[in-house]
Amino acid sequence: MTELELRDLRKTYRARGRPPVDAVRGLDLGLRSGELLGLLGPSGCGKSTTLRMIAGLETVTGGDILVGGASVTDRPARRRNIGVAFENYALYPPLTVRENLAFGLRARRRADRGDRGDVERKVARIAERVGLTAVLDARPAALSSGQKQRVSLARALVREPDVLLLDEPLSHLDAAQRDTTRRELKRIQRDLGHTAILVTHDQEEALSLADRIAVMRDGVIEQLGTPYEVYDHP
Ligand code: ADP
Ligand code: ADP
């Protein structure tokens, strides 16, 4: 159970010969332990940049990121216990689904990775929950894009991360799969108590999953409230 706090978080992209881009311009945000925040806003407003900074995949220009009250801003990604499922699922092609899922667990420090049977049990349990049991021994190339997306989600969950970051995690699913996976995702997040940020363009997804919604525009948060407050009282 871990709270997440962003303090005056900033990101400016600088490339030679081009004007700097202020992608994130002072974000202040606190998530309670176990809270799921929906992050919405037009394309280019800074949502992905924000998630990448929290995950440690992008350096921070200014500000601080705290997980469970401790700053992780200067820690590399592997030393933050943050699970990410991004739209462009980066699965390892030579590994089976089972190996892709176990990889995250094995990559952890020896001390807390548990025994082999433990890894297998965790992988089997999460595969069952997201409907991947039948394809555990397949390789990514043999999967549909919907299945790949579910592997990406399962890989984020299997590590039991303190914080879960989801960037359009259901975008490649068809309507029926999206419905089931959304319900299962909510159940898992609630059961396991993940503190989570979900980026989505899907208003129904945000309404059904999020405890609160933040609307970003131009690198800042423009609106913050319950789904009811944001959608009914703009
Ligand atoms: P969103 O996820 O809301 O669509 P992004 O975080 O991807 O927004 O982008 C925010 C702004 O930062 C945009 O103006 C985008 O063009 C710019 N940007 C994103 N990534 C880079 C990058 N690697 N280099 C330069 N500019 C970038
Ligand atoms: P699902 O039904 O689970 O959404 P599909 O297999 O129907 O997945 O894929 C949706 C679309 O994405 C199809 O046009 C398919 O050809 C394409 N697609 C699936 N996997 C890949 C991939 N690895 N690279 C490029 N396109 C893909």
UniProtKB/TrEMBL annotation:
Residues 4-234 form the ABC transporter domain. It comes from Streptomyces griseoviridis. The keyword Nucleotide-binding applies. Keywords: ATP-binding, Nucleotide-binding, Transport. One of its GO terms (cellular component) is ATP-binding cassette (ABC) transporter complex, substrate-binding subunit-containing. The keyword Oxidoreductase does not apply. It comes from the Bacteria. This is ABC transporter ATP-binding protein. One of its GO terms (molecular function) is ABC-type transporter activity. The lineage of its organism: Bacteria, Bacillati, Actinomycetota, Actinomycetes, Kitasatosporales. The chain holds residues 1 to 234 of 362 of the full protein.
